[in-house]
Write a structure and sequence with these properties.
Length: 67
């Protein structure tokens, strides 16, 4: 059996081709993150002596996961 001849693709519209490549390279590192608006970001007062925590444990864990 004979092998079918491979097709040769030639780019005729270089400006469109290059802009699509640049768009893909720029968007390659993008990531979208959705946060729940009900999440408590700031820590509640403990009623103990000393400085209160600024951020909740949930906020700290979220930041460490993104890192």
């Amino acid at each position: 059996m004979n092998k079918p001849a491979s097709k040769i693709y030639r780019t005729t519209n270089w400006s469109s081709y290059m802009s699509s490549i640049l768009r893909r390279l720029i968007n390659r590192g993008n990531i979208s993150i959705w946060f729940d608006p009900k999440t408590q970001w700031y820590a509640q007062s403990q009623g103990k002596q000393g400085r209160n925590q600024t951020y909740s444990d949930t906020a700290i864990q979220c930041c460490l996961m993104i890192k």
